[in-house]
Fold peptidylprolyl isomerase.
Amino acid sequence: MKTISQRMIRLTAASVFAGAFALPLWAGDVAKVNGQAIPESHLQAILDKQIEQGQKDTPELREAIREELVRRVAIEQAAKKAGLDKDAKVQAEMALAKQGVLLRHYLTQYMKDHPVTDAELQAAYEKIKKAFAGNEYHVRHILFESESAAKQAIADLKSGKVKWEELAKQSKDPGSREKGGDLGWATPEMFVKPFSDAMTQLKKGEMTEQPVKSEFGWHVIRLDDVRPQTPPALESIREQLTQQLQQQKMERHIEELVAKAKVQ
């Protein structure tokens, strides 16, 4: 059996074996270890997981799973012989593992029974489109510690004494000074209010006439370009948006279950 790694089989087995006994038993056993039968349902539980991950159902794969199940039962028997199954901490972990399998299957089934509808998807997309209202700005800035330094910079730029790119190297903003002060495309809410207020008042190609004070220092701001925001096409975010809505729907269901539960 050399078509799939033992490590992959063991990881899959670890995730399903604790709850495999809760599945309907299939006729027949795949092996017996010191007289303890391994039901075919255990093999099938792991096989189903492997198939979900892209593996093909082959005799070699089934034999690999069978070998892993034999290993696990042998270890399980040794653990029980050592009395670990009577240990309170071990019992608690086993109970939580069983509970986890049950929860996972319940929530998976719930999402199958309550899929995200086209109407829900479209409604969520309309909210995204509204969030893209307004413009986005391609802006640069040079940050100074003092107002006087910023005013001098504006005067030097206006007179042509210095070029923007050279002056930007003196900026106190380490994230943009090596890029000519370029902050890329951004929306007003991405900046502190004094900065965004000054930026949105500029026309393409303009620079602030006076330094702009913020909590970071004194800014000289230049607007390179402006354009309307464009929301992503629905098809480009359909999968991500569907997953987000599924998660929200599941969380709401869990909250409803908890709210209805009698907790003492």
User: Anything to note?
Assistant: Residues 13-26 have pLDDT under 50 and may be disordered. The first helix runs from residue 6 to 20.
